């Protein structure tokens, strides 16, 4: 690798970087450089949906970050897996396609992110989407690059979950991504023909042959180069060499909610009071860089049973496991074509709310607490997730060395109000598992356990067992207040030629998984970068 120059430099070949690289390089007159610190996405664990846990556990594919000790939950240090390969976290995540609630985006617009209301972003959700399950829905696209589908052969316990939810008078939703995502139903996933559809397979693979797109893997970006208040390129490290790559037009950071703020700080863009002790010259004082970090906290209700209907490893289930293997090899369906989280519900857990405050993820497998492992034994889990936490943390530098991991302080439960949705969620989950459809499985509650009933007891359980879902957001958020880092066109305040496009730009977290929204952000960012007119706003039901 040598010093080079391009029209556009994209830092990070994760979800957003792959989308933007595809869209910009579609114009043959533009030269585009995409830089990824990790390897290519050739590892087999990436592509088998049920091997998500194995992919996360593969050191070469994961930055393997951890949080700072979390002072509100007994100083626990929690894993923060982040993808480190082409496709980024879309190559190791749970493949869930969930847009969140339309009201979330309307709130973005009301808070100063003009152009980001749900009606304005819906066309960008649809443009990227090839929905294989809802071909005739006004809420979905069918001609995009990214496959979205339902599980072809879900575990039979999903039917039991649906029966239990019906008994409790909740609403069935065949499509949890329409304009009113409240109720329970099957997940939609980024899976095509039984294989993971990462954003590298969806967007980068079709563009790799373009002469105007250079893709560099195993190259670490050390900092953004600045000339006065203009970004002119990046300093990179490749095979021990430190080089410069120049951008004639723009540098676009797509390194994610952890590493985009880290790169800005390493470049001297951030809170000067933090940069000075690191002996980094403050090139532009921007105190919101790294601030406002938040994530979705969760605390599972876990059941164990001798029944072997659930996914899991056991001697009694061994013949079925062999069948799963052959079913996948021959037909690309069944357990190995699943992410194991096949159903979900979005519910309001108390009155007076305008949208669901808890997501419930049903897993027809025993829960292990170290990420996404292959479950040993049998059981099932309903995992309540607090969708709108009030606690805020920060990304900061541990060192001026670009190789050093940043300090990730999620600050979980700094606001004790965040316990309340989870307490209510645990009680709802218990009602689901106590309903007749589940009772016949004679399962035993192993977490929290029947002895824990009061609010205080459940808070204690949450402190000991909770974990974030790894939906980190808002560390370079767009807005107009003093904590905002970006304007609504994703340009860094006070710096010319520098944008950010990933989950760090969210003004606030959405009520769902974040990967689909990051694809949308990248689609909209690409149009802004290219100076295109925004897609026409859509409202399939009601007035704009």
Q: What's the CATH topology label of the largest domain?
A: FAD/NAD(P)-binding domain
Shape: globular
Question: Any guess at the CATH architecture of the largest domain?
Answer: 3-Layer(bba) Sandwich
- Corresponding CATH superfamily of the largest domain: FAD/NAD(P)-binding domain
Give the helix proportion (percent range): 10-25%
End-to-end separation: 50 Å
Query: What is the total number of structural domains?
Result: 2
Q: Whole-number average pLDDT?
A: 95
Q: Supply the CATH class of the largest domain.
A: Alpha Beta
The total count of helices amounts to 14
Number of strands: 25
Give the class from helix and strand content and strand pairing.
Answer: alpha/beta
Main β-sheet description: 7 strands, mixed
Strand content: 15-25%
Give start-end ranges of low-pLDDT stretches. none
Rg, please?
23 Å
Describe the structure.
With 544 residues, the protein is of the alpha/beta class. It folds into 2 domains: 326 residues, FAD/NAD(P)-binding domain; 177 residues, 2-Layer Sandwich (Cholesterol Oxidase, domain 2), CATH 3.30.410.40. The chain is 24% helix and 20% strand. It is built from 14 helices and 25 strands. The strands form 8 sheets. Strands 1, 2, 10, 11, 12, 13 and 25 form a 7-stranded mixed β-sheet that branches. A 6-stranded antiparallel β-sheet has the order 7-18-19-20-17-23. The model has no long low-confidence stretch (mean pLDDT 95).
